Amino acid sequence: MKNMYRKVIIAAIAVVSIASIAEAKTLSIVAVTQQDTIKSRVKNNTHVVTSNKNGNKGNYIYINNGTHEEIKYNGDINLTEDFKDVKSISANGYLRYLKKGNGVNKKLEIQSDKNGKLTRKYYEGGKEVAYEPAGKKWLQLEMPTIIAKTGIGLEAMVQDIYKKGGAKAVLAEADKIDGGSSKLKIVSYLMAQPNLSAPDTKLALQHAAVASNSDYELGKLLKKVPAARLAKDDLAIAYLQAAQKISSDYEKGKVLSHFLATPHLSKNTAAAAVKTVNSISSDYEKSKIIQKMANQESFLTDNYKLTFGAINSISSDYEKSKSISSILNKQKLSEAQYQALFPVVSSISSDYEKSKVLRNMASRLPANATALREDYKKTAKTISSDYEYRKAIEALN
Q1: What is the pTM of this model?
Q2: Is 341 exposed, middle or buried, given 0-12, 13-18 or 19+ CB atoms closer than 10 A?
């Protein structure tokens, strides 16, 4: 009997385990196939699901402690000039809004037929009631929420606010919205306004840094800023401060790559850029950006110690070697710069990589620079391998 119970228990555990594995695999597939269209998050008993396809179709579901809010839409939806009502929806499109909880149970539907004619329905407590005036009034009350959470009419609204009150009025509107993604959309539309002034662009960048909770979305916004506009120090600094808010090394690297297309960086801007590069944890991403920095003299003319410090923070000997070699290959170093670089070369653990870097340096050292050649020999002595040491010394001679 005991053996029979044991077998039943083992079988039950096996079934649960197989089910768990199957469920995990299913969830993994869903995450991969839908990650570009559906976002779901649960935090503090709040469940939010959003999806968007092609910009004119989507679902928004919000559930929190008994409150249930749902927005579904399809088609091109145009709002009235005051952004309080729906003006038109493309053929066979719709907008549906539902809100339940805390004493509220309301729903409205606006449906477009094949000719674009709108039909409006309004429900309270599950029962349909006349749309006018209660349904219309409720829609006007809730329209700011619908715009913020779906983006319907948001671009046109930003343009309207900007024309009437400027950038500060647009950003004040963004501050009223609960949700980083919607705030970032408003900032993005603001920055797309033609002839946006440098002070207004700076304000927008500062708001973007505060509003964002998505590395990808913030990075996408920053990469839209033309590099030519970042030549001014105050804009460049605001841009780099926003970039530092990005946690992902990959996304930060892409933003910095975009920034490095800025022509004629000043001493202060170059220093701020190096500090931002230093905030990258990944050796690969940091090395990749430093190799791009090597194309601009401004990073070495006044900030070579900061730049070499960033290289020295790279743990990987291979990536450190690549970073140093990129500078040697693209810049003509001064004696002071060589002197500052030798300790970084000495920090390379790999005899092969250290010897390779030194051999690259050997042909570039001035023949009459006795002090530099002595520093070279001292650095070469930190190589343990006799074979790699000889190659480094022979290259100097």
Answers
A1: 0.74
A2: buried
